[in-house]
Write a structure and sequence with these properties.
The structure holds two protein chains of two kinds. Chain A is 48% helix and 0% strand. Chain A is mostly helical. The mean pLDDT of chain A is 90. In chain B, 73% of the residues lie in helices and 2% in strands. Chain B is built from 22 helices and two strands. In chain B, strands 1-2 form a two-stranded antiparallel ribbon. In chain B, strand 1 and strand 2 form a beta hairpin. Classes of the chains: A mainly alpha, B mainly alpha. At the A-B interface, helix 1 and helix 2 of A face helix 5, helix 10, helix 11, helix 13 and helix 14 of B.
Chain lengths: 63, 498
Amino acid sequence: MRRAWYALLILPFAGTLIPPLYNHAVPALFGMPFFYWYQLAWIPVTAVLLGVVVLLTRKAGDV
Amino acid sequence: MSSATVILAGAVFSVTALGFVAARWGRPDLSNLEQWALGGRNFGTIVSWFLLGGDLYTAYTFIAVPALVYGVGALGFFAVPYATIAYPIALVVLARFWSVARRRGYLTTADFVRDRYGDRSLEVAIALTGVVAAMPYIALQLVGMRAVFAQFTSLGAEGSLAALTVAFVLLAGYTYTSGLRAPALIAFVKDTLIYVTVVAAVVVIPARLGGWGHVFALSEAALARRPHPTSIYLRPAQFFTYATMAFGSALSLFIYPHSITSVLAARSRGVVRRNAALLPIYSLLLGLLALLGYCAVAAGIQTRDATNVVPLLFARYFPQWFDGIAASAVVIGALVPAAIMCIGAANLFASNVFREFSSERPAVETIVAKLLTVATCACALLFVFFVPVPYAIDFQLLGGALMLQIFPAFVLGLWTRWFHPKALLAGWAGGLIASCAMAYASGFSSSYTLHLRGGSVTGLIAFYSLVLNLVVSAALTLVLGAANYAAGVDRTTAADYA
């Protein structure tokens, strides 16, 4: 089932919508508290997940 | 005249010329509504990327998000999870909507609702929601422009209003002439300027302040000393608020008429899908820009009007000519979405309100849509002249809550015809009333505190209203189903969505 790949898209929701998971200072990165760089990091990660899903669920008409 | 003023004036007049030239892009027949309003539904991946980026990440966003972080600390950073999870939603919802819209020739969400449910009152309700939500949004673009005119040029308050009027009359002119092609072409200029400005800002400003570590340390100390102390971290009571703000905003982003207009202009379903994966690049930009709010705190910038935070920061750290570039980025960044919002609102009114009361004649419809675009521009301008800025922001927040109330009929309707159209109408009305009541009770805040058995929980108004909307829609569907009340005719077929 190619449509099963869409389940990957649950990850960004689980990763970003539960603030207690990331509401702290350490570990910091380039002086940025964890709260900030962790959430920023989800943007490229989500883009990659989307790219994977887009490629793997392509249909004949999707040109 | 200052160099910033010269650069800004040059930029506005250049993009105006570009806007008029856009009418010749592809030699279209612009008396056809699909050509005028949707660029002939022929934009490829790159044009769509610039157009959608230029449309969704408005100048107001770039002013308001850092201003919010400056004002409330960590809670303001909700824009980042919002701009992240909006794209998985976009991929799933918009690709499906694009397919059915292309197959059945829809221009708006309300076109789909009419076809799907065979219910005109629901169609008109959906259309008017879009128009009402778009108006304060357009007005806020003007507010952003006015802030820039006043801050960066030697025009003063009166001169800024005059400059604003000139810029907006030009906007109405090229939008009337070229339709969606005008903002699509100008979006290339807008996005390039925004990227240059933001990258320069996030490289230069934190470095001048001694690095991010220093910026966060200074901000934490400064926010704690305020009369209403805040923090660079969330309080546990804010967890639910933060999550509902991100989730509710993400759900509503792509159902605004301007988003839909840009999406339907895509050439193929593949273009829409690829853009869902490519547009998050703009979110990264937005996230870094949000942190400029802390740079402003760390730099000790004091202002009563938070919309001035970004302009003041630029004025302090950049030479005057670069302020001109930054100001142009914001002004052109406001013109692009404003044009698309006017077109989107006009489409809804022409296709779903006006057409319901007149015979279907496509040529007349295009003229109506074009005239309505000009009328929408004029209304937004009047809005800015006569409505104080805080009210414009209040209305925009409320508009977001109202917009989300079309979610059950439109988005869920893409997958299921289970809901009864009259139940959806009642749910929509319930959500609308609840949004207005909660907004009024909270003094036009975006969130509302529910008190339950000793505890209290604060969440996004739009989110609470949507829950109520869904409950009413589902309950009434069961009741009307049991009563065998006629549920309208569905003119779409399963094949239309593939």
